[in-house]
Description:
Helix content: 40-55%
CATH superfamily of the domain at 4-211 and 223-285: 2-enoyl-CoA Hydratase, Chain A, domain 1
CATH architecture of the domain at 4-211 and 223-285: Alpha-Beta Complex
Mean pLDDT: 96
Radius of gyration: 28 Å
Amino acid sequence: MSAFKYDKDADGIVTVTMDMPGPVNAMNPLYRDTMAETVARLEKEEGLKGVVITSAKTTFFAGGDLNELLAVKAGDEAQFQALIDAMKGSLRRIEKLPVAVVAAINGAALGGGFEITLACNRRIVVDSPAAVVGLPEVGLGLLPGAGGIVRLVNMLGLEKALLLLLEGTRLQPADALKAGLVDEIVGQVEDLLPTAKAWIKAQIAAGASAYEQPWDRKGHRIPGGTMAMPDVAGKVSAAAAILAKKTRGLLPAPERILAVAAEATMLDFESALRVETRGLTYLAMTPQAKNIISTMFFQMNEVNGGASRPKDIGKSKLSKVGILGAGMMGQGIAYASAIAGIEVVLRDVTLEAAQKGKAYSEKLLAAAVAKGLMTEEKKAAVLALIKPTDDTADLQGAELIVEAVFENVDLKAMVTKQTEQFLAEGGVFGSNTSTLPISLLAKAAKHPENFIGIHFFSPVDKMPLVEIIRGERTGDAALAKAFDYARQIGKTAIVVNDSLGFFTSRTIGTFLDESCRLLLEGLSPVALENLARQIGMPAGPLTVFDEVSLELMRKVNETHKAMGVFGSTYDASASDALGNTMIKEHGRPGRQYGGGFYEYPAQGEKFLWPRLFDLFYKPDVKLQDADVKDRILFRQVIEAIKCLQEGVLHSVADGNVGSILGIGAPIWTGGFIQFVNTYGVQRFVDRSRELEIVYGPRFAPPELAIAKARAGESFR
């Protein structure tokens, strides 16, 4: 019982305070045993008048033990189901207690933690932004398996429950109260227990003799009806179609959640719980869940925790940042910095250009105000932090200067020489380059030890990743400060070593180049776009080209050719050839120039440029869909492994997190390197060799993958 504190007061009310070893409470073996013992004690407690369940941690309960979930493998199904049944059994016994049970939620109650509260008669939460509640399991490739689906459907009805379950919505107290997930909000943590006990006493005083949950009462009906009703069945069918379009059949969790929730409306409560258990058991065995949990939980925590940050450098917090260039990237970096409370000097060659860059922030902030997400006062305060200017002297005292000018070595060298002098003592100069070697750019700096790459992604206000590139002479202090800045503005930062294209641009470059090869071989443009989306890429390659602009790609390639490094790291010959054809022969550089692979009519949706079919499509060319999809995916996976093999990547975690957040790797893969673990390392090597034989040496398996397969190891 040491993991839970058990305290009975003079009024006969027992307070169970969860206080498990470690920083959080979690559904592990200790929890299961302790909860079972606690319930057994409550059932035998003489003079019991009520129960309050709360937590001694800053969070109420963190949820399931994901290490335990990752360890589950084929053949463990019966044992796994038994563990789930044990957890559910304890919660059902709580519901059957002959007294009122109240959850006093002092912090975040997510997943399994919120499922504990759903077994209580009343949920009271403290009014704190940290006290979020919800069932976000879908985001990890799982479903709520401790009764969350069944209870939510019985409590709210199928339609409202699905809105929360399929999105994994996390709600703060006011929104949770409005949604019906909690019953009451108190102002301070200290108010939780007195309020909970007062409610219990009020029920006793009112003469309440039974405290059954709504679903255990005779005559209970699910709000909104069951699947036996045509309108409900119709909504479920529509939801299934929407899910299929959204997930493309690659993510089994949303589909299984929908199925369990719908079935729960047709079954008695106990049977519905068993269906839910089988659903979680199925999902826990899937490679998709294992991939997502590995990367988006464990490796994400590793990256955000600073695993690639120098350990012996104290953390820093910036107060003034200078940004050179107020174009698309510069204005986004200015917004991200100002919204985090940092003073920003936004410098461009003309004051008008700098002011236009600031207007971008004003537009975003105005939209937030219109949606009720921000006050006018907050908007004004953020805008006041951004100073547009054409005077380099205004940069004086900046702890960090980020240049966001065009990808040209000479131009970047010029602005470095002009502005580095204005840095504060120990200040860092960062280049927002996507491809140019940092060690080369640092030659223009007087203090190359304080020069670093800080690669943002567009649009900066939406993209969560920053790729920090360490040059040959970049010092630990500069790396630590750049990492801390990225975290300060709410970004996830991966750290890579210097290389042409680094990790993200180099890897996505293979996606674009392989797609160009497929188009030049005669594959239908429609098939190319669709097959890329079918493996889970967020957009087809022709769409990506148009959005990034073929002209930008052409200029980058021309810069690399002038440097004598074109093709030295990865082969971009096909994308270069196709880009030049589209631009020079047909005047179609991309969307911002009026059109590229697509036409963009003033009215109506975009459509593929009809001449693409005349220029490239060869009906007699037959490419197997499976080969096309593997070529698109494997080309990127191979390049990611090469980056790890060559030391460009610091870690597997940086590669996986970076590929999902920065490149758009399909979430089901868990990132391009993690994909190999569940696909099978030897199987991956064998399939790569098959592709190599048919399509060329770019598909040759990397030596690191071969070595891992030979040793029977995975990528960790």
